[in-house]
Amino acid sequence: MSLDIALEGINTRLKACQARCQIEQKNQTLSLRATLPDRNDPARRRQQRIPLGLKADYSNLSETEAKALELGRQLRGDAFFLG
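Now predict its structure.
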């Protein structure tokens, strides 16, 4: 199975559990993409990417999925904090 297909499957699971984010591969690294509070005006939200610093390979997919689920929990509970 290719990494793209694996990412597609993870993103389908994230969508099903309303994680409010998805995993992307950019070049050779993984990142999360979500609608987050704007750093300058937290009342506004915009699509942003969070680079994870993880190489895009199978060994990092479970860690990346766990980070996406945690981000989703924070966003659903309004506990996300830009620090």
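The beta strands are 21-26, 29-37, 45-55.
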